[in-house]
Amino acid sequence: MLAGCGGGEKTSASATEATSGATETGGASETGVTGGVSAASSGTSGSGSGASSSGGETTAGLPEGQCRVQADCQDAGSCAPPGSVSCGGATGCNLNGEPCEADATCGGTPGAPQFCAQDPCCGMGVCQPGCLDDLECGLAQSCAADGRCVAAACDDQAPCPDNFACTAGSCARKPCDGDVACAGVCVLQQCQETFGTCELPAP
Asked: What is the mean pLDDT of each run of 10 residues along the chain (203 residues)?
């Protein structure tokens, strides 16, 4: 159990921040926190910037508490993309594990790798289990030699999945101005599989 990681103010960190926070001493940014990041969930407000709702749907066609843009959230709520980390709680940290400063601190073996990930909420290093193959990583990600999940490589022969574009040889969320550009929905100008969630700050 981690202690001393900060106060109880609730903020929201995007999935990219959560999975890009793994670092070793020296400041090099890595992607991937295998099994360590939970999706943002409850604590939502009604959506729709004044739109009335009926049967759980707003006049804008959004389920209650979900969003495409910041204006869809009421009562000072903010729109968090799918997979965002919900920060707050007793320690202020999101990840569970031993504090660390570098991968070497975490030990690990070739069959059970460990790496030092930067917690997206309280900003401290936390030992996390690494991946062994691509199947353990998320959509458009692959397992690197050091056990981190990173953006999958892509080219004409190995294209990215829906809602991703090949940028500088790696898969990244496709930018958008509306749902028509996506195989899903456009949330905060990025293609996603589902709506974002309206998150309220801690009382």
From this structure: 42 43 38 37 38 40 89 85 79 85 90 92 92 94 94 96 96 96 96 93 59
At position 68, the amino acid (one-letter code) is R
User: Cα separation of 89 and 45, whole Å?
Assistant: 19
Burial class (CB within 10 angstroms; exposed 0-12, middle 13-18, buried 19+) of 15: buried
Distant-in-sequence, close-in-space partners of 156: CB < 8 Å, separation ≥ 6? none
| DSSP codes of every residue in 52-85 | -EETTEETTSPBTTEESSGGGB-TT-EEE-TT-E
In angstroms, rounded to a whole number, what is the distance separating the alpha carbons of residues 167 and 177? 18
pLDDT recorded at residue 178? 93
59 — phi, psi (to 5°)?
Answer: -65, -20
Upper half-sphere CA count for residue 199 (Cβ side, 13 Å): 25
Q: How many CB atoms lie within 10 A of CB 109?
A: 7
Q: Which residue has the tokens 């690197």?
A: 144
Distance of alpha carbon 125 from alpha carbon 147, whole angstroms: 16
CB 33: neighbour CB atoms within 10 A? 28
Instruction: Please say whether the beta carbons of 11 and 86 come within 8 A.
Output: no
